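ok so dumb question maybe but i'm new to this and my supervisor (M.) told me to 'just get the structure for Substrate-binding domain-containing protein' and walked off. so i did the thing. is this what she meant?? sequence i used:
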Amino acid sequence: MATLADVAAQAGCSQATASRALTKSGKVSEKMVRRVVKAAVELGYRAPFGASGTSSRRRAVVGVLIPSITNPVFATSVSVIQNRMLMAGHRVLIALSNYDPAQEADAIATLLVERPAGLILTLCNPGLDLAVSGEMPHVVLMNNRPSERFPAAVAADNHAAGFVMTRHLIEHHHRSILFVSGSFASSDRALQRYAGYRAMMEKAGLQPLEALEVGFGDYDGLDLGEALRIARPTAIIASNDLLALGVIGALRRDGLSVPDDISVAGFDGIAIGRMINPVLTTIEMPDVSIGAAAASLLLDMADNGAAPRHLEIPFSLRAGGTVRRL
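this is what came out, is it supposed to look like this??
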């Protein structure tokens, strides 16, 4: 296991400077702090309890990893988690993966430098080997299904959500339905929603269409022209509400009306979907409940020795005005 001396040697500073940088307990330049933290992450170093600046009187740290702070779903969950942890006397550190599996392990390693009492993680793919050095603390997955490595999880059933949304469109007599998604490699939630779409299409005797994958965050400049010409859909399901809004914008730029020309639906139930006209048809995910349940489960495991468990949070369909009956 890496020592403080190893970190100092790799960062090119004294052990005292490395200790001050990691514990934030003295005057150290921001440049040196970044060098020391980078060295600690690369070496898999975690400071021992009782080190300067990490006494037992200091509040325990809980690390939270989310894909993006710009999606209101994750922002709401983080707010709920922080309030719950503050009530329990814990500090909260937040890290972002930016939907990038390569950044994910680095973000977790950075959180581990702080020797957290526990982690709440929303992962791109919980089944992948994160290759993070050192022993992991208590971990609760949020918005992911449990995996062999991380059996504690709080999530809605995204496969069922995709099934229900597709059934809603089929009940409105849509037969050619296109699924537009962020990268499946970066979101198992999107992949599960697409799997639910395929399952319902096949159950109805309809041909599922290949999903159109777009980059996360590239929602405001979507070009659906080629996909529309090839698939000729009467309805589009987007893997989340922000993407659904991007789809609506792209359709309008192409001179198409929603829902008169093409129906659109999403997932998550973010507030802005209720503010547009017509109101967005979506699957409402209980982000407040998911965040609260994840925080409570982690505290139960860390403080009471409770066994890891999987909590499934119910979702609901919100039938808005962006889907019309053919």
